[in-house]
Amino acid sequence: KKGSVSLMDYKFLETATNHFRESDILGVGGFGCVYKARLADNLDAAVKKLEGGSPDAIKEFQTEVDLLSRIQHPNVISLLGCSVHGETRLLVYELMQNGSLETQLHGPSHGSALAWHHRMKIALDTARGLEYLHEHCSPQVIHRDLKSSNILLDSSFNAKLSDFGLAITDGTQNKNNFKLSGTLGYVAPEYLLDGKLTDKSDVYAFGVVLLELLLGRKPVEKLAPSQCQSIVTWAMPQLTDRTKLPNIVDPVIRDTMDLKHLYQVRKCINTSSVMLYLPTI
Ligand code: ACK
Q1: Whether residue 13 has its Cβ less than 6 Å from ligand 1
Q2: Is the dihedral of CA 89, 30, 133, 176 positive or negative?
Q3: From edge to edge, which strands make up the β-sheet containing 20-28?
Q4: What are the Protein kinase domain coordinates in residue numbering (predicted)?
Q5: Is residue 56 among the annotated active site residues?
Q6: In this structure, are residues 16 and 90 in contact, taking their beta carbons and an 8 Å threshold?
Q7: How far apart are the CA of 99 and the centre of ligand 1, in A?
């Protein structure tokens, strides 16, 4: 129940596990599997399950709980409960019958089926959710990973923001422990290249979502390996001056860069180069 979310709610785990079957799978996210559940009071819910998990995944779980247990808005997903039992972590959300915007637009049932009035409303709902995070939450919340797969749709296609694991609530990110987070194609250029994170980073991602709604397809396609290779080859000479490496590479890594870290640098270059593909739409 809202307001009584506890990280160590063992009792809830017993109740929750009794009410979903592993066969009732809704989908698989980066975090773990999501199952359909029926709670004791005939309330349908979605249960996200994290088994074990890296320190980063556990931190994301904690951020999600901390944040969602204290914010509430019609365009933000409701967290009904959570639990930690040994290595098993559960997050229980309201059920969003129409899944994610990504699946609606790009899934097997084809995006063209999503009516224009629904697309308009989804854009508006997303903007309202963002406005709430940016203007009405104190401290301000920056989502940091807004994308179509994190916009969920209920039975009437009302949209709600989800997945707050990467959200930031202290305004700015500490440059000393800067770690680029987000999703390729949605990351704002100034954040990608300079580590400058503001609420406008979410607004940039929102712009990409608007393009998706308009085009009915992903505005940034994955590059073929040969394209990536030529971009890396093109960009490598710029890397001979290590001080010119973008801030997205941790300063310690920048000064002691070896082959092990080259992969990280390449990943960054590929990412920033992919951004250049956006205006070609
Ligand atoms: O696109 P989908 O059908 O919607 O597949 C993904 C999958 O789980 C992994 O994230 C679905 N999902 C996530 N949260 C919920 C929810 N609260 N209600 C319904 N489906 C959800 C998402």
Answers
A1: no
A2: positive
A3: 20-28, 33-38, 44-51, 88-94, 79-85
A4: 20-281
A5: no
A6: yes
A7: 5
Segment 231-273, tens digit of pLDDT: 444 444 444 444 444 443 444 434 444 433 444 444 444 444 4
Tell me: ipTM over 0.90. Answer: yes
Interior/surface letters 134-162, b for 16+ CB within 10 angstroms, e for the rest: beebeeebbbbbbbbbbbbbeeebbbbbb
The DSSP output letter for 278 is G
The C-alpha atoms of residue 239 and residue 33 are separated, in whole angstroms, by 40
CA distance 110 to 65: 33
Residues sharing a CB contact under 8 Å with residue 188, sequence separation 6 or more, in sequence order: 200, 201, 204, 205
Token readout for 199 is 């609420």
Q: Model confidence over 125-146: pLDDT tens digits?
A: 999 999 999 999 999 999 999 9
Q: For residues 64 and 60, what is the distance between their CA atoms, to the nearest angstrom? A: 6
Arithmetic mean of pLDDT, 215-235: 54
Instruction: Tell me if 93 CB under 6 Å of ligand 1.
Output: yes
Q: What is the four-CA torsion angle of 58, 63, 64, 70, rounded to 10 degrees?
A: 150
CA distances from 110 to 6, 101, 104, 256 (A): 39, 11, 7, 47
Ligand 1: which atom is nearest the Cα of residue 102? 1
- The four Cα atoms 127, 31, 196, 278 give a dihedral, to 10 degrees, of -70
